[in-house]
Amino acid sequence: MDRSAFSFCSVLWLDRGRGSKMDMPSSSGRQTDWTKCCLCQQDKKEDLKSPVTNPTKREADGYSNIATNIPQFHSINALPIMLDPVRLDEGGGIDVTLRRNNAKYHQSCRLLFSNSKLQRAIKRMKSAFDIEETQRKRQKTAPHPTSSECFLCDKEVPGSALKATTMQVNDRINDCAKIMRDGKLIVKLGAEDVLAQEMKYHPTCLTALYNRERAHLNTQEYEKNSDLVTGNEVYPAAFSELVTYITETRASSERTEPVVFKLADLLTLYQQRLEQLGVESPNVNSTRLKEQLLSHVPQLEARHEGQDLLLIFKDDLGSVLVQANKYGEALHLAKAAGIVRREMVAHNSKFESRFHAGNVEDAIPPSLLQFVCNIEHGSDIKSQLTNDASKSDIAIAQLLQYNCFGKYMDGGQHHRYSKDHETPFAVYVGLLVFAKTRKRKLIDILHENGICISYERVLEISAQLGDAALTRYEEDAVVCPSLLRKGLFTTSAMGNIDHDPTATTANTSFHDSNISIFQHPSIANTGEECEPFGGRDEGEESES
Q1: Which of 26, 132, 416, 489 has its CA 20 to 30 A from that of 394?
Q2: Greatest CA separation found in the chain?
Q3: Which domains does the chain have, with CATH numbers?
Q4: Tens digit of each residue's pLDDT (9 = 90 or more) over 152-177
């Protein structure tokens, strides 16, 4: 062991009040059984060792190591096991007693008293001693605020200033310092309480401290609960519908008895709506949902009735609804229209010369369809659960998207429709009317009212489909309808078409042949659909 460690151990030994001798009792209440381990006095599976049986004779053997280190462990109160050193000294010292009784020990027990273990124990004790001395010096030299200064603002206080006289004030001030992590205030408080330091303060400074603590806690609570209505777009949409359902239910009630909502029912509606909007297994905290509802609907208050938590409107809600500001509703409508229009202008969907299931979903932004559904069926959460998006909702949304222009020409009576905003419904109506009537005037009227594409665009799409059909016929080397399926047993029948009118004003007749094709699918073989025709667009915009 080095000289500094031994010096520190000696200091601790002397500090125990026994001069240079080890602090040991004069007699021991327990005798040593020398047939067992002299250190632990326990029976273990481990073999007992003895330096006497060791053929290698060393000057410092296990006996001398134990006799030297045990008193030092005892002096610093760091014995690794329960051991009374007195029972190892029968006169003449520990080393003589061990050799006289041919003492044995477990190797694991002896290693607990090794030199390295002793040095580590002394080092730990010395570190703790230094820390204690440092703290003692700091407490002696720490500056205390003078009795004429406020310990919060460091300004002089008048004779009427208050002094901390209760432990409640002391605890509250310490809590404020820890919650806000105010290092300057924590240093001022130090190890003693404000009563012992006789600290004075301005009443306004103490009130300001409490206000800062409350604002800090409110900020933390807001950040904690803000994830309920942030993140995914569907969460704010479903939450707004839930709030609308609550307010509209109250507005449409007869007011003869209070409108009461169970938090469990509202939570179920909210989760069902989130699932309908595409959120898989939504995990909504009921307490956070309650706090958000109380925050967005200040007229609500929460009441416990048994195990149920009820949300009830306050009595003055009726007057609040009657005195609602109409200008506020107009502003809300303008904001909603602006949000939807911004997404409509940014959304692009081009007709690919064929209709398929993904056309409708890709042609309109989800917010537009949601807005139309709210207008058609109601914006509350129950209406949205009961009524899904219908064909009329989808058609109206597509027409709105088709007639949405990013820019309008000043004074222009006609607008240029972009092919990037052509919706399947507008294209389908134009092609259907052309196929049924072949009347340009009817198509132009519908186009002027924004219901279908223009007559020129109808002809363009028809020409593209015709070119695609001819290309397919040339590739397949056969002319057949595109609806035929591959891999099916197919039969055909031929017949004549004769039209010989008997009217006196008729001057022509018609004679031709026709071919009828029949396919025979089965449950096991339904055939394979042919790849649909794909046209090509020659321009980006069409002018009406």
Answers
A1: 416
A2: 155
A3: 3-127 (no CATH), 145-224 (no CATH), 229-324 (1.10.10), 359-466 (no CATH), 480-529 (no CATH)
A4: 887 877 665 677 777 888 888 888 88
